[in-house]
Design goal:
Exonuc_VII_lsu_C, elongated, Rossmann fold, OB fold (Dihydrolipoamide Acetyltransferase, E2P), disordered C terminus, hydrolase, disordered N terminus, EC 3.1.11.6
Length: 442
């Protein structure tokens, strides 16, 4: 809510909280609260910075830590504050006198005028070389494509058997089992207990990973640890381990439980879970959610089937009202009558065509017979030929004494020419009809 403040009278100084510190003067001073807010606003623009120093004070109250960091070469110190949620992620062996680097962010308290620094990360100095080597290894593995999302294997929807690699009787093991069984009571585990820190951790984890990856019943493998400081997590960045995880045929979930300086295992695993509890939730489906989903899908399917059946019934009723379905025989009878009519017409046309063809055939037969040389010979005419069938067309062809063959209507007989008969004797002899046209016929 905005408070109404009257304008100052002419010659009267404005109220202190209305004057910005840079505009203050003896006649118009700023207020302490306005100065504190200005300082706090300026400090908030600094953001987080990494500092190096020595712990000179370390007091724990209600899980929170209040202490001081001292410069290594001078007497300069700063106040630090570590909330309990952050303290759980820091090395457990931090103490007064330790040489550390910390990520801090300044905070100014306007009520008391105190300046302190909140710590979000802190680790011992001396890990620098190790972290440099890890970053080089991380860059090399990234260039080889081991971090690519395309090579990540999908997790099964409902694993029949889960392989778990974790410390014996650890909180991580309890969290995974408890949360997985809450989500799916019949879930089964095959657990390999290993050392999760120290020199034995990498060989133990490699052996457990090889055993579970070779087991055909294991559908997914979880590597779990309940967080820790960077020093204790170095084993999970070992090159042998991360390459073995990349080469495994079974999907692998990394559940180391460390947020700030996550190990390389998180990058190469098929799925990174923030905590062992998160791993159980990501790997095992919730039976109640799945039952609700099945119920929802069944209801949707029932509704769609009911709608489809109702639509088909309406279509069927509409078809039943059509005339062809009310009396199916009527259409058949109508088509039968039409077919009978077509058959009768076809039969009539065929009979008429056959009769016309018969008449035409008889006429052609009579014409052929009338034109046939045999018919001409049958009327008393003859054909004379000599010299192996040469037709006699001129009497000069057969001088006296020439042998000829005479063909008549029934057979042939031999004759001999007596010479050419005088013109007067043959003038009254009729010429057979078509004799000239048929003289070439045998």
């Amino acid at each position: 809510m905005t408070t109404f403040r009257p304008e100052p009278a002419a010659g009267q100084a404005p109220p202190p909280d209305a004057v910005h510190p840079r505009d203050s003067a003896p006649e118009s001073p700023t207020s302490v609260a306005r100065l504190g807010d200005t300082i706090r606003g300026f400090i908030e623009t600094w953001g987080s910075v990494w500092v190096e120093g020595e712990i000179t004070s370390w007091n724990t109250r209600s899980g929170n830590v209040f202490g001081r960091l001292k410069d290594l070469t001078t007497d300069a110190t700063i106040s630090i504050r570590i909330w309990s949620s952050t303290r759980q992620r820091l090395p457990a062996d931090l103490a007064v006198g330790d040489h550390v680097v910390a990520c801090v962010k300044a905070d100014y308290y306007t009520r008391s005028g105190d300046l302190s620094f909140g710590v979000s990360a802190m680790r011992h100095v001396g890990l620098g070389d190790q972290w440099e080597r890890l970053e080089k290894l991380r860059a090399q593995l990234r260039s080889e494509g081991l971090f690519d999302a395309s090579r990540k294997k999908p997790l099964p929807f409902l694993p029949h058997l889960i392989g778990l690699i974790t410390g014996e009787r650890s909180d991580a093991e309890k969290d995974v089992h408890r949360n997985a069984e809450l989500r799916w009571p019949r879930v089964r585990f095959r657990t390999q207990h290993v050392a999760v820190q120290g020199d034995r951790s990498v060989p133990d984890i490699l052996a457990a990973l090889a055993a579970l990856d070779a087991d055909p019943e294991v559908d997914v493998i979880i590597i779990a640890r309940g967080g820790g400081d960077p020093q204790t997590l170095l084993g999970f960045s070992d090159e042998r381990l991360v390459r073995a995880v990349a080469a495994a045929s079974t999907p692998i979930v990394s559940a180391i439980g460390h947020e700030n300086d996550h190990p390389i295992l998180d990058d190469v695993a098929d799925l990174r879970a923030s905590t062992p509890t998160d791993a159980a939730k990501r790997v095992v489906p919730d039976v109640s959610e799945q039952l609700a989903l099945v119920t929802q899908l069944r209801a949707r399917l029932r509704g769609r089937v009911t709608t489809r059946v109702a639509h088909e019934l309406a279509q069927f009723e509409q078809l039943r009202t059509r005339p062809v379905l009310r009396d199916p025989g009527a259409a058949i009878d109508q088509r039968a009558q039409h077919i009978e009519l077509l058959v009768a017409r076809g039969r009539d046309r065929a009979e008429r065509a056959i009769a016309a063809g018969a008449r035409q055939t008889a006429e052609l037969r009579a014409a052929v017979r009338a034109l046939s040389p045999a018919a001409t010979l049958a009327r008393g005419y003859a054909i004379a030929h000599h010299d192996h069938g040469v037709i006699v067309r001129d009497a000069a062809q057969v001088p006296t004494g020439t042998a000829v063959t005479v063909t008549v209507g029934r057979g042939s007989f031999a004759a001999r020419s007596e010479g050419e008969i005088a013109e007067s004797r043959t003038a009254g002899t009729p010429v057979p009809p078509h004799a000239e046209e048929n003289t070439d016929q045998p």
